[in-house]
Amino acid sequence: MTVGPFRCTVGHTVIGNVRCVNAGLRNRFVCTHLTTGILRSESLCNAEWSDFMCLSRPKMHSDVHPMFLVINQIAIGKTTHGRKQHGRATRHKDVRLCAIGACAFYAQCRFHCTGEFSSMTVEDWLNNESWFDIKSLTDVIGDNTEAMTSDAYRDRIKDTLKALNLPCGNLLHLGRKLGSKLLDMLEEETKEILRVGQWSSGVWDNSCSSKLPLGPIRKLAGFVGSKMHFNARTVINLPEGLLKSTPIGCWCYKALDEVTAACAETGKNETACEFLRFMCELNKMFLQDAAAMSVLYPDRATHPIYQLPPFHRDEWPTHLEEMRAALSGEDNPLDASLEKVTPALHASMAHSQQCISCIC
Q: To bridge 220 with a disulfide, which of 36, 64, 292, 300 should be the other Cys (CB 3.0-4.6 Å)?
């Protein structure tokens, strides 16, 4: 028997509540990604890890922090008709609503329980057949190459919507309904809503967008009324020991170095490199969002995911305090108060105003 944080295995059988924890984190990822990433439903059930990649958009002159984007390929769906479409999302300003952070939490829990990828060699990574078909949404028990049915999360979504008094008749199209309504309430142009959901009638608009629709992507991530992008938690650096202590970090950095070196010699298998880069970024985001969640919403720090090894390391309290300091000015980093910039001048002006009020 092997016993670990919220994990207990006898042979190859997982017992305890680990399946519930994994399912809860998986359902959170599905819900957030459907409403702020792809605005679709069934397509996500068929997604594989090899369908995901990430990129950082060069920081514009109006940005404080660079925008990180996750793009996933949609190969199978009711309206794809053999064409490949794409889901696109950036990190949400509200850590609770972040689809990318939710993906990171779910992946850490799943890989901790299953040990997937941890024993793969360079030869395995260079052989697409050994990892290309592994599904993104799975149970911790069973075949990880078999697509899940939408029933796996539909009932949970129904309970959540009922608790929030949000009527929704077609749960399999939650992303289309809520995602498009959010953009509509944010007064986004209709053509842009069609673009981000890829619902226009033209084949080009549906499958081959000329550029990323950054306007609606930004709004869905909570940045409304300003073209300036800022997200303090996304730029906090982490020590190497903390990064490599997670279920993903214990293998992804070494694998990336080895596969990158192998690809440099052969000029092939770039997909494996891109996937491993995505895993490294996901690993960092997990620790950033976990710290932000602990700082902003301490009651959520009791979740079983916080039993994982990195949260018991000596570096974690230091990272937590750095995150707390960064989030203290999160409202608007350019709106520097006089009290913080020049405290002496602020005190003098406050005293003068008090004297004037007494005279009047």
A: 36
